């Protein structure tokens, strides 16, 4: 088993669709399907229930997904910590923003930060203010930009910081 098999599996498990997962991985769908079949043969179980226009994780698939996430987390953490020893910032920053002009502001910030820390990668997500705040509350991103004050009922006040 190779790390790429785990990455492929996680992409399919996230999308629950081979075509979208293949697009996300920048590869064709038939080789991705073959790689998942090879993984299932190696493990001796089916990881997905395949139905016309539907894909669902089996019980074994749900369990394998948990282990696959842990494995990828360890791989990423070990790589980041090794780079930190050398003094470089390394890893992925998860950023969220509202639609509109926020992505433009975020792009400017990323360009400046990239000059200082070229090894850092970025995972960008955008949606409405409620979705962005939800991602912050669930700790799914390190930084978020919303363009107007957000006052949702039941959500405690969050600190707001200004960046130049």
What does this entry look like structurally?
By secondary structure, the protein is an alpha/beta fold. About 50% of the residues lie in helices and about 15% in strands. It is built from six helices and five strands. The longest helix is centred in the middle third of the chain and has 27 residues, at about 60-85. The radius of gyration is 19 Å and the shape is globular. About 15% of the residues are buried. The mean pLDDT is about 85.
Write a brief structural summary:
The chain is 52% helix and 16% strand. With 164 residues, it is α/β, with parallel strands linked by helices. Strands 4-3-5 form a 3-stranded parallel sheet.
Q: What do the pLDDT scores average to? A: 83
Q: List the strand order in the largest sheet.
A: 4-3-5
Characterize the overall form: globular
Termini distance? Answer: 46 Å
Q: How much is the radius of gyration in Å? A: 19 Å
Structural classification: alpha/beta
What percent strand? 15-25%
Series of H and E elements? HHHEEHEHEHE
Poorly predicted runs are none
């Amino acid at each position: 088993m190779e790390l790429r098999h785990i990455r492929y599996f996680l992409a399919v498990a996230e999308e629950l669709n081979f075509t979208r997962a293949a697009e996300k991985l920048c590869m064709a769908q038939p080789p991705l399907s073959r790689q998942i079949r090879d993984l299932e043969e190696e493990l001796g179980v089916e990881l997905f229930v395949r139905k016309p226009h539907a894909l669902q994780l089996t019980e074994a698939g749900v369990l394998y997904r948990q282990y696959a996430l842990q494995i990828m987390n360890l791989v990423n953490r070990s790589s980041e910590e090794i780079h930190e020893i050398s003094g470089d910032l390394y890893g992925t920053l998860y950023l969220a923003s509202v639609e509109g002009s926020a992505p433009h502001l975020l792009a400017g910030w990323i360009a400046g930060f990239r000059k200082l820390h070229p090894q850092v990668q970025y995972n960008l997500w955008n949606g409405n203010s409620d979705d962005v705040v939800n991602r912050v509350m669930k700790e799914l991103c390190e930084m978020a930009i919303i363009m107007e004050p957000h006052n949702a009922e039941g959500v405690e006040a969050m600190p707001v910081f200004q960046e130049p």
